Amino acid sequence: MSLTTTLSSPNLLPLPHLSSHAPHRTQSFPMAAILRHINPIRRRSRSFAISAAVRQPDTTLWTPSPLAGVKPAAESLFHVTIDVSDSPDLASTYTVAGQYLQIRIPNVEKPSFLAIASPPSVAVTNGVFEFLVKSIAGSTAELLCGLGKGDVVELSPVMGKGFGVDQISPPEDYQSVFIFATGSGISPIRSLIESGFSVDKRSDVRLYYGARNLQRMAYQDRFKAWESSGVTIVPVLSQPDDGWAGEAGYVQAAFARAKQLYAPDSTGALLCGQKQMAEEVTSILVGNGVPGEKILKNF
């Protein structure tokens, strides 16, 4: 039996195949015919709502700032330094390692979200924000990496809570701190390490840093300084070159293999990078008794 309905409302348009010369006679016809007339109206309403949302004005406060330099950091990664010396109010809002902002290139519609790689003190003393940017084909980041000194970009206000290291303080109570980063996720980790979080008062601070190979691993020139501050660095390569004698595979697997002893109640962790890595590391730590609120992310 076909689904039919009865219409008698004068507000509905007559359908082409129905007789219009009997106004007092109630007509019966398939529901599909009604939907063919109603659905275009709904689609137009939905399209109008979406268009209206797209046309909302951008209320972000953008600060024009010149590039101080762009140079290679590793394969597909670039150091980008932006001069904020003429914008002390913007520079002073960067207070916690792990915070980020948006960078917009004039005449390019879509901005890019980037974590600030330099510690907050550099913004005050040197008047710059430093970033580690991965150049992805067709992205705003790729255009940014192709700019040069003096080119002007626009910066949003600094955003985010950053790494809440107060959750793993005082250091005497959190002797073990494990840090995990993959790819360009090392950017805010650099800020964390160089900002200092009382590493010298902790007994075991380790950085597990994953990349495809050494050519894709940024900040190798900073490793000695990080280690001298008390951070043990464990590079992990997923596709190492022949002759690599270090950890191979993925960060989470390398951490699981290490089987280091740590007291869960006095352990903290910080993560930034690939989603699966973060989820699996979190699962390992929580499974071993580390409280979830002691596993920190910057987003």
TrEMBL record:
Superkingdom, taxonomy of origin: Eukaryota
PROSITE patterns in UniProt: FAD_FR
Classification via SUPFAM superfamilies: Ferredoxin reductase-like, C-terminal NADP-linked domain, Riboflavin synthase domain-like
Cellular-component GO terms for this entry: chloroplast
Residues in FAD-binding FR-type domain copies: 60-165
Keyword Oxidoreductase in annotation: yes
Name of the protein: Phenol 2-monooxygenase (NADPH)
Organism: Helianthus annuus (Common sunflower)
Organism taxonomic ancestry: Eukaryota, Viridiplantae, Streptophyta, Embryophyta, Tracheophyta
